[in-house]
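Q: Could you write out the predicted structure for this multi-component system? I'm mainly interested in how the pieces pack against one another.
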Amino acid sequence: MADAPAGAAPAPAGVAINSGDTAWILISAALVMLMTPGLAFFYGGLVRRKNVLSVLMQCMTAICIVSIQWVLFGYSLAFGPDKWGGLIGGLDWVGLSGVGAAPMAPYVDTVPHSAFMIYQMMFAVITPALIIGACAERMKFSAFCIFTLLWSTLVYDPLAHWVWGAGGFLGLNGGWGALDFAGGTVVHISAGMTALAAVIVMGKRQGHPTSISPPHNLPLGVLGAGLLWFGWFGFNAGSALHADSLAVGAFIATHVAAAVAGLTWALLDWMFHKKPTTLGMITGAVGGLVAVTPGAGFVTPMGAIFIGLGAGLFPWLAVTFLKNRLGYDDTLDAFGVHGLGGIWGALATGLVACAAANPAVNRNGLFYGPGGAEQLMTQFKAVCVAVVWSFVMGLILFKVVDLMVGLRVNQHEERVGLDLTQHKEVGYTVID
Amino acid sequence: MKYVIAIIQPDRLDEVLRRLEEKEIHLVTVTSVVGRGRQKGIAEVYRSHKEAGSLLRKTKLEIAVNDTFVQPTIDAITEGGRTGAIGDGKIFVVDMDRCVRIRTGDEGPEAIG
């Protein structure tokens, strides 16, 4: 990307808006938007029937809250002209003032600034929604709303600025040069590590692990995973920000990694638990999508296969062994899949990124020869920053919200279910 | 031999099952049912329209027991199911004429366990 000064004026006359690029970004924004309802069904199918609506409702609420936050001040904090040496965006674009039809360097050169804004909004929306997986079946709805607003503002927006913002200290726009094509660090590591903080602060559900019913509707889960997979093309290929060969490469890498990871998880289940499971297949596929996110635009299809293999293996190990060993109750494995999948993906990008896949890679990954160790080290440092930031801030914010309104529903409400006690509705009737 | 039918609050099921298990009563059939009593439940709301909800969700347990296990079964259900509020449910105990284990053809008290 161009090395433009922070807060540069709108591009000079003569820079044309490209209709193909603009169409692709708008379509990608819509695709990424669909991921949050997709996530809702993925999560919704895996909880017990008395809590299905609560998960769907939290995901839809995240869309509403974060979208408004993004327009009012979130976008400005994340992408506004840099303040304090790469730490945060300024308030120049509050209320989207000045975010208009002209392209804005260094983010976009051929599409309107406002198209970039709405595209990035969908990322900001889905990230806190991912955390729901760790808190499902026991979090108060009011606590969820407050937490989502605080977390988006105080954790996501700064982190997005560090990695993607002009002048942010981690990324390619004048920072350390960590590669994060579509948000492995900003979205998945941050959500995954905050999810770990959630399970530590909130504790287990009643009856965990012996008397928790299995997923109430796996077909819903498969539907959700399919929608996530579909939407992820907008997430990753859209991050090319042009309708060009880079977008095509990211599209291919995304698909290949998901396919490999889904198959890997199913085969591991087959070998070690006697049968290949549907839940394992879709969990693996989502893990593959997570892991390929930071590297999608920087790796070859063979690199994507490598990423997919690890994305099947490491979350599988965590969910199968680590979770039982440590005894934490990460309801839907938000930490195992998004946290560890994201960390694996960010590090693997330091292994298999190569200039052959994208000329913007100026230091090849470790597997592609000289200087690779340096890129891997940069990836590792960026991962550490994201892990510590999102975990510690997650702990603090959960404690704060707990003091404000209480994080958990009471024991009776938890047994009756969140649908009836938080929303006065039920997902399914007993008789017609 | 008795056939014990209990209607309980759905959220007490885990506790009732645990107490039955403690008293070594393993054979139990559980169904989700709706029914009517004097209790007013949590009304559901759809598009701001309050549903009266004349039928409430309950859980039905059916347990076949030998005579010596009747009182322990009743104890387990009342201890596990009681909240003290209206709507805790009922236990019905009825005589059972025959019990046959399908696999072996065994009849009577030994077929229950």
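A: Regarding packing and overall arrangement: Helices of chain B lie at 13-22, 70-81, 109-112.
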